[in-house]
Amino acid sequence: MSKAKQALEKLGKELAAKILAKQVPVIDIPIRALSNVQYNKKTETLELGNKKSERNFFHVAHAKKFLQTLEVAAVSKELLEEGKHASLRDMFYMVKRTIPNTKINIVDDQIESDSALEDLEVVTNFSREQLNINANKMGSVAGHVIVEDKGDEINWAKMGSGGWSIPSNVEEIIFKKVNAKYVIYMEKAAVWERLHEDKFWEKNNCIIMSSQGQATRGIRRLLQRLSNEHHLPIYVLADFDPWGFYIYSVLKYGSINLAHMSESMTLASARFLGIVAEDIENYGLKKHLITIKDVDVKRIKQLQEYEWFKNHKGWQNQFKKMLAFKAKAEIQALSSRGISFISEKYLPEKIKKGEYLD
Amino acid sequence: MSKAKQALEKLGKELAAKILAKQVPVIDIPIRALSNVQYNKKTETLELGNKKSERNFFHVAHAKKFLQTLEVAAVSKELLEEGKHASLRDMFYMVKRTIPNTKINIVDDQIESDSALEDLEVVTNFSREQLNINANKMGSVAGHVIVEDKGDEINWAKMGSGGWSIPSNVEEIIFKKVNAKYVIYMEKAAVWERLHEDKFWEKNNCIIMSSQGQATRGIRRLLQRLSNEHHLPIYVLADFDPWGFYIYSVLKYGSINLAHMSESMTLASARFLGIVAEDIENYGLKKHLITIKDVDVKRIKQLQEYEWFKNHKGWQNQFKKMLAFKAKAEIQALSSRGISFISEKYLPEKIKKGEYLD
Question: CB-CB: which of B79, B149, B163 is closest to A339?
């Protein structure tokens, strides 16, 4: 029996025992709110604190949430038994049923089932992927890596121009061969296609990975497994803008939403590879600066206050320069220097010189 | 030399000849606007009409656009010569240079280079993919198909849980083996993962393909190639909502934006597989209806007036019922009947009975 299923059964048995002993059924749930999130300087991640709240079935304000949490647990147990996976949306429809003899639905909105599932994650200490609920799927990967997944052997070096499509759930993938010195994760699929066409991963013996925008949970776990199990440094290639910086920040340090998952989601080994303020001078990108808006300025000021950036000279320097330039710049601005400038000059040079922020 | 490159050289030589003969350099460009778009009942696609406009280098209102078109053509020729591909964003940065001895940039905004590229498509009759400019990449595919791409042989049946990641440009893919009776294209990556986990394509001998939302150009071309070259019917699995219907409409009949590309983009063989109004009764989805908003109502009324839907009883019936229900429904509502209800009952039953709209 899987450990996740064991945890669900344990939860159920404990509640049943309380009911049989005529005690009030109660679940202790760690509080998932800013008030209970703290930055752990040692592990360099956002973590959940020790504050817990009681969810009491006989408390009128708790009863519905109590029921939702158990219903989500029941569906998850069913999925684990059948060896099937559901999306968050599926989960919503699967728990959305009417309580007999009433007109009340267990959930009316996906926010409720999502929230119940997050509660279940903190209660059981298993991620929703381990509870067989998948996040959205997106992204591609290429490199000298062979994995086994669902009985298929997949060679990331032999995937044509498309690459392997990264699944939403990478927990059961087995690494058969990993021949790479590092991983580059980029926020833009178009940049991935550029590096792939230039055979960057082949020439530089690395792995290239991308989604479109923020990294999915599948990608974050895949990066983490490559970092932990194969000790590969992870380079993050993003724009010189608050959003690019934020993508890096979430990858490396975690986010408030997922503070309870930090252990399996954060990437202490992540390094920011670009674009940085100095590149704009060094690589002649001045004329491709894009004026920032008020919302960007506000975002930079928030980033400046993040605990992990607050005393970080390198990052404070980037924020200051962006505010001074009053401008941001995109990775693709490098194309103005030639379509393969990024793969032939920019990246090899920066990696060789160790010009990254971490 | 590639035919696309020949077309670009022809354009350049004609203009050079005019200049050498002391004539005014002029390009004739078919007008890409609603006034010049018509629905061809025979081919069942939106097409560009015959109206053209002259772009004159010596006309003060034309000079800049003229220059932009030629600059984009020059970059495209370079890409074709080097055998490399650029994204739309790359193209923007590559043509964004200052005209010597002035302070004027050839382009200041990506809208300008995108528009110049569309002009180049209609002038040369080559798609931007054939001109080595790629759209965004997204989506996955699985099935009993073997393709050759960039020297790699890729078996879509052996891709683990991820599937093959569909490239933005599928023009050069070679089909080595296609063993399938039909293709299902779905708008949601999560539904794709559901069907993939249930081995739907294996059990039903078909191909499953998805993006997230609107189909990318890479996917549309891949579907069209499977339809034209391998005579496979294409089933579109989308929500019972105006957006789902619109996705189908664009796939099958084309769109105003891409009217000049209809020949290589539309899918006369496309069939809408669901969700439809009748399913809501037949498959017990009533309690999962979602109330529509004013914007949905407006959208339905627009769809009702589309030339290809106007006299189509089946579609008019769907629009009327959605307005009567005042509600829409999602594919994933089927999960309320069981996580694999969609792959074990809904789809096989509907395909067997021929219950699709076309």
Answer: B79
Exposed, middle or buried: residue A214 (CB in 10 Å: 0-12, 13-18, 19+)?
A: middle
Neighbours of A68 (CB within 10 A): 21
Nearest CA-CA distance, residue B80 and chain A, Å: 12
CB contact A143 to B (< 8 Å):
no
Q: Where are the domains of chain A?
A: 3-134, 140-353
Interface check for A192 against chain B (CB to CB < 8 A): the answer is yes
pLDDT (tens digit, 9 = 90+) per residue, B287-341? 899 999 999 999 999 999 998 999 999 999 999 999 999 999 999 999 999 999 9
CATH of B3-134, picked from 1.10.357.10, 1.10.10.10, 2.70.70.10, 3.40.50.2300, is 1.10.10.10
Return the pLDDT at A195: 96
Asked whether the beta carbons of residue B189 and residue A136 sit closer than 8 angstroms, the reply is: yes
**Is A69 part of the contact surface with chain B (CB cutoff 8 Å)?**
no
With a cut of 0.95, is the ipTM above it? no
CATH no. for B140-352: 3.40.1360.10
pLDDT beyond 90 at A302: yes
Q: Work out the burial of residue B278: count CB atoms within 10 Å of its CB; fewer than 13 is exposed, 13-18 middle, 19 or more buried.
A: middle
pLDDT at B58 over 80: yes
Q: Using the beta-carbon criterion (under 8 Å), do A94 and B336 form an inter-chain contact? A: yes
How many CB atoms within 10 Å of residue B107? 23
The pLDDT-based confidence of A330 (bands split at 50, 70, 90) is very high
Q: How many helices (H) and strands (E) does chain A have?
A: 15, 17
Determine the pLDDT at residue A124: 92
Q: Does the beta-carbon distance from A90 to B168 stay under 8 Å?
A: no
Mean of pLDDT values over B61-85:
94
Residue A135 pLDDT class (50, 70, 90 cuts): confident
pLDDT in tens, B201-237: 999 999 999 987 778 889 999 999 999 999 999 999 9
Question: Which of B149, B287, B336 lies closest to A160 in CB terms?
Answer: B149
Cα pseudo-dihedral A95, B323, B237, B217, rounded to 10:
-120
pTM of this prediction? 0.88
Percent of chain B with pLDDT over 70: 100
Instruction: Give the number of C-alpha atoms closer than 13 A to the C-alpha of residue B134, restricted to the C-beta side.
Output: 28
Q: Is B103 on the interface with A (CB under 8 A)?
A: no
| Nearest residue in B to A134, CA atom | B190
SS3 readout for B163-196: CEECCCCCCCCEEEEECCCCEEEECCHHHHHHHH
Q: Which two tokens stand for residue A146?
A: 């062979």
Residues of chain B positioned with their CB less than 8 A from the CB of A153: 158
Radius of gyration of chain B (CA): 23
Active site residue A93: yes
- Mean of the pLDDT values across residues B152-180? 96
Rounded mean pLDDT, B18-26: 94
The residue from A39, A93, A185, A356 that is catalytic is A93
Helix (H, G, I), strand (E, B) or coil at A147: strand
Which amino acid type is present at position A130?
A: Q
Class of domain A140-353: alpha beta
What digits encode the pLDDT tens for the residues A79-100? 999 999 999 999 999 999 888 8
Contact at 8 Å (CB) between B70 and A312? no
C-beta neighbour count of B159 within 10 angstroms = 24
Q: Which of A271, A278, A61, A294 is nearest to A185 (CA)?
A: A271
Q: Find the length of chain A.
A: 358
